[in-house]
Amino acid sequence: MVKEFEEKAYWAIILGGSSGLGLASAYKLAAHGMNICIVHRNSRAEMTEIETAFENIQSPGIRLLSYNMDAVKPENITYILQNFKEQAGEDAKIRCLLHSIAKGNLKEMVSNAGPVLQSDDFVLTLQNMAISLYDWTKEIFKANLFAADARVLAFTSEGAVKAWKHYGAVSAAKAALEAIARNIALEFAPYGIRANCIQAGVTNTPSLQKIPGSAQLMQHAIQRNPFKRITTPADVANAVYLLCKDEAAWINGSVIPVDGGEHIS
User: Fold this and answer.
1) Please, which pLDDT band fits residue 166 given cuts at 50, 70 and 90?
2) Residue numbers of the domain that contains 65
3) Contact 196, 153 (CB under 8 A)
4) Roughly how many angstroms between the first and final C-alpha of the chain, as a whole number?
5) Does pLDDT of 1 surpass 80?
6) Does residue 265 fall inside a structural domain?
């Protein structure tokens, strides 16, 4: 396998990289020579499995740093970036900032059986799943840690433009995420930073499984998809890798479907 990133001291910072799309992307980028820094939030009971996964990412010449911290708190962002500088070394540059945070509220707007969405639920979801992309981009930029040709990537979904039950707060956050990424693409372009969103198809991840009716969503996706299967984390990780290559430098400000054509029917 070609490790085109190996000799460039490139790093990827992956926010929410302990499972699903973020973890699959970490494996893919590391396989091509990129060093990996994962920020995640998991309980002690989950850490044995996660630490095994992190060990499997590492190979000769590949470094991995991980921080089990809330990625949204400003003081944590400051600490992580300072520690990253110390651990990664002066030559380290961040080629890819990948936003894969999936912390949001899945309450219904109207319910006879349980609590309904409140304003605070929207605020929490927007902060975690949208505004944090800008917070990290801004702080990495201020710390002069981006590579000369850097990529800011974020995972969105078809729910940004379609209404799904239980998805109101997340839908708002995904729409905001796409808007923030577009403005990053515009305003940071003079500094060599490209920003794009990947619209993943329905993928069987821990985040999807938390959505009520996820089994029905997957079945519907199979029926719609020209290839008659759902998207896999590896499918999406392949797109992350492609967008990190030199040849993808002219892709900026886009929402790119990675779903095998699920969105066309």
Assistant:
1) confident
2) 6-257
3) yes
4) 36
5) no
6) no
What type of residue is 47? M
Is residue 22 very low, low, confident or very high in pLDDT (cuts 50, 70, 90)? very high
The count of structural domains within the chain is 1
- Is residue 262, in this structure, part of any structural domain at all? no
The model's pLDDT over 252-262, given as tens digits with 9 standing for 90+, comes to 999 999 999 99
In a domain, 249, yes or no: yes
Contact 56, 38 (CB under 8 A): no
Q: Which two tokens stand for residue 47?
A: 């850490």
Q: Which helix (H) or strand (E) holds 23?
A: helix 20-31
| Averaged confidence pLDDT in the chain | 94
d(CA 219, CA 214): 9
Q: What strands, in cross-sheet order, belong to the sheet with 193-200?
A: 64-68, 35-40, 10-15, 93-99, 146-156, 193-200, 255-258
Q: Is residue 263 part of a domain?
A: no
Q: Using CA atoms, how far apart are residues 143 and 135, in angstroms rounded to an integer? A: 12
List CB contacts of 144: < 8 A, sequence separation 6 or more: none
For residue 213, pLDDT beyond 90: no
Share of the chain above pLDDT 70, in %: 100
Q: Using only C-alpha atoms, what is the Rg of the chain? A: 18
Single-letter amino acid code for the residue at 213: G
Q: What does the CA dihedral 213, 216, 220, 222 come to, rounded to 10 degrees?
A: 120
Q: What is the CATH number of the domain that holds 216?
A: 3.40.50.720
Cα dihedral angle (99, 103, 109, 115), rounded to 10 degrees?
A: 180
Please report how many Cα atoms fall inside a 13 Å half-sphere around the Cα of residue 60, on the Cβ side. 0
